[in-house]
Amino acid sequence: MKKIIVYDLNQTLYKKSSKDEFFKFICYKKDYKLIHSLQLAWMYILYSLKLINKTYFKENFYNYLKGIPPHKVEKFAKQFWNIEFPEYFREDMIRDIETHSRNGIEVYIITGGFEVYTKYMEELLPVKVLGTLTKYENDNYRIEGVACNNEEKIRRLKEDVKGEYELLEAYSDDKEEILYHAQKGYYLDENGDLHLVQKKEPAEI
């Protein structure tokens, strides 16, 4: 049986939000105008008021990638992550990931960020990345299915493993379902401190 450990990316393994930081990076590269920032601020307001769901929010937030084909986004992602890594990553988690890999434990990063720019993490660490899947059509990115958050993370992991597995540990800055699906789920608070979540029955996926 495969032994697996899962890390969330944003504000967990990576100390910042890649969604926001990659947006800033693309704006710098493409010299975007103020109107794009105002449109995105409006999306944040709608999402915070729960007037739109997370999938709709992500799909529209990432409109700043409009007209940039996947191969160019992947090129920007390589540049971006090579700037951010390892300075803005948690050193203890990086050490743990490398140790787990040497001991034959499979490590996943499962994130709500689009795979088109998060997948490059596989080049920097001995991990497999599962993120929100998209298709590029009519010069824009459309989410395939739903955003990779909450219960969708568990479904994607099961789909990828294709067999029985033992989820030893999971780490996230949100008390999401995958923490309760693991033998030990760790919640990372705003101060960067880890807390073991109390076990409950995981949701059926």
Automatic annotation (TrEMBL):
This is Haloacid dehalogenase-like hydrolase. Pfam families: HAD. InterPro entries: HAD-like_sf, HAD_sf. The keyword Protein biosynthesis does not apply. The lineage of its organism: Bacteria, Pseudomonadati, Bacteroidota, Flavobacteriia, Flavobacteriales. One of its GO terms (molecular function) is hydrolase activity. It comes from Christiangramia crocea. Keywords: Hydrolase. The keyword rRNA processing does not apply. It comes from the Bacteria.
